[in-house]
Amino acid sequence: MGMFSILEISASGLTAERLRMDIISSNIANANSTRTETGGAYQRRVPVFATILESEMNKGSGGSTATARVPKGVKVVGVAVDNSPFKLIYDPDHPDANEEGYVEMPNVDVVKEMVDLITASRAYEANVQVINAYKSAAAKALEIGR
């Protein structure tokens, strides 16, 4: 693992968690949106992440070399739409009510979103702590030569 790999991995984690928090914020903001540009109630969005893998040559004990796939961070593959069912609320006076008087409300659970937001925030903080620990270790290494 290279010297700057730690920073690259943490930076990719910071970027992924920032996007995750943005999507959660959008979900919470649209928790009561019954009408969207495409029609129908707002559907919850979920980020999709994947591991960035890189090939590395590893030297074995007998002088042989082997190629291994080593994780080098995380990347955002896309944003998926949660296809869980909408909540039906009986409100015949609502402009978006169907013939039976039910309104399709978004499939966003604000409590679940807040838990996800706390999790994303903690993961973000953990990546910041890794970067700070790396900077501290690098500074200590530079002091050895004094």
Blueprint (SSEs and pairs):
Elements (H helix, E strand, L loop, with lengths): L4 H25 L15 E15 L5 E17 L5 E4 L11 E4 L4 H35 L2
Antiparallel strand pairs: 1-2, 3-4
Helix pairs in contact: 1-2
Brief account:
The protein has helices at residues 5-29, 110-144, and strands spanning 45-59, 65-81, 87-90, 102-105. With 146 residues, the chain is α+β, with helices and mostly antiparallel strands.
Low-confidence stretches: none
Number of strands: 4
How much of the sequence lies in strands comes to 25-35%
Radius of gyration: 23 Å
Largest sheet at a glance?
A: 2 strands, antiparallel
- Average pLDDT figure: 89
Describe the protein's architecture and organization.
There is one protein chain. With 146 residues, the protein is an alpha+beta fold. It has a domain at 5-31 and 45-81 and 108-144. It has two helices and four strands, in the order αββββα. The protein has helices at 5-29, 110-144, and strands at 45-59, 65-81, 87-90, 102-105. The strands form two sheets. Strands 1-2 form a two-stranded antiparallel ribbon. Strands 3-4 form a two-stranded antiparallel ribbon. β1 (45-59) and β2 (65-81) form a beta hairpin. The longest helix is centred in the last third of the chain and has 35 residues, at 110-144. The two termini are 27 Å apart. The model has no long low-confidence stretch (mean pLDDT 89).
